[in-house]
Specification:
Helix 3 packs antiparallel against helix 4 (121-193). Among the domains are: 7-42; 44-191, Helix Hairpins. A two-stranded antiparallel sheet has the order 1-2. By secondary structure, it is an all-alpha fold. The chain is 83% helix and 3% strand.
Length: 270
């Protein structure tokens, strides 16, 4: 078991070393890149135009998906603005109260009145220190909220600007696609109507074949018209199969008789 684990470990280590030290990843990435480029070059332009049209139509969904978060951000900004306005009012009231309490403490009287309540001087000082600390924390929190509101408003403005750019870019895509579709239609029409320079092309072969068929039909039609006009005036052709077979024996007898007569004539002349 231990030997098997050692062998397996060595195989894994060797594989990692080959992977790191050789160009396996480079070869793989190059093959993938070349394959994708080859496939892309084989895709018809009409297919790409249809694909881009669908992608442009899907941009509406992408833009619509941004509207919800933007609306939520706008509502958050409004709430934060209301909270800041309320905090400003509260701080203003606290400031006025603290000023009044400060004046009462400054008098040095042993008995002071704060918000209709009688306090000793020591109690007034303690309340002043405590409420002033609360006031300072409120001011710090208000400034933090104001900075947050400013940042969120800038963010919202950037989001609106980005949304407007998306709408403009979508419109530009639609116009450009329409132009490319019109140009593609013109190119397709030009490829069909322009005479082909190569005689052995598919269109040229079809055209020649159709011309040949049409020419053959015209020849046959003209021949039929001539037969209808002159055929009745021509001597009918004798059918070789209807001729009488020769009498071979009679022909031989005749020829042999002619030879005998010729021989007798030659003997008498001697």
């Amino acid at each position: 078991m231990i030997k098997k684990l050692l062998v397996l470990g060595l195989i894994v280590v060797a594989g990692v070393w080959v992977f790191k030290k050789t160009n396996v990843t480079s070869y793989a990435s190059t093959l993938w890149s070349n394959g994708v480029s080859c496939i892309s070059s084989q895709v018809p332009r009409e297919f790409e135009i249809d694909r881009v049209r669908r992608e442009i139509s899907r941009l509406d969904g992408d833009i619509r998906n941004h509207l919800g978060p933007i609306a939520e951000k706008m509502a958050q900004i409004k709430k934060l603005d209301r909270d800041i306005q309320s905090a400003r009012v509260n701080l203003k009231e606290q400031r006025e109260h603290l000023l009044a309490l400060t004046k009462s403490v400054d008098t040095g009287e042993q008995l002071i009145v704060a918000d209709g309540e009688e306090l000793t001087l020591e109690q007034g000082k303690n309340r002043l220190a405590r409420e002033f600390g609360i006031f300072k924390r409120g001011e710090t929190h208000l400034k933090s909220q104001e900075r947050l509101l400013e940042a969120q408003r800038k963010n919202l403005g950037s989001t609106h600007e980005q949304l407007s750019k998306m709408m403009e870019q979508k419109r530009e895509f639609e116009i450009r696609l329409a132009q490319l579709e019109a140009q593609e239609a013109e190119l397709k029409l030009a490829r069909i109507t322009t005479p082909l320079r190569v005689d052995d092309s598919r269109f040229a072969d079809i055209r020649r074949t159709l011309d040949s068929i049409e020419q053959g039909q015209e020849v046959d039609q003209a021949e039929l018209q001539l037969l209808q006009q002159y055929g009745s005036k021509l001597t009918p052709r004798l059918n070789s199969s209807s001729q009488t077979a020769p009498d071979v024996a009679a022909i031989r007898s005749y020829l042999e008789g002619q030879v005998a007569v010729a021989e007798r004539s030659a003997a008498s002349s001697k």
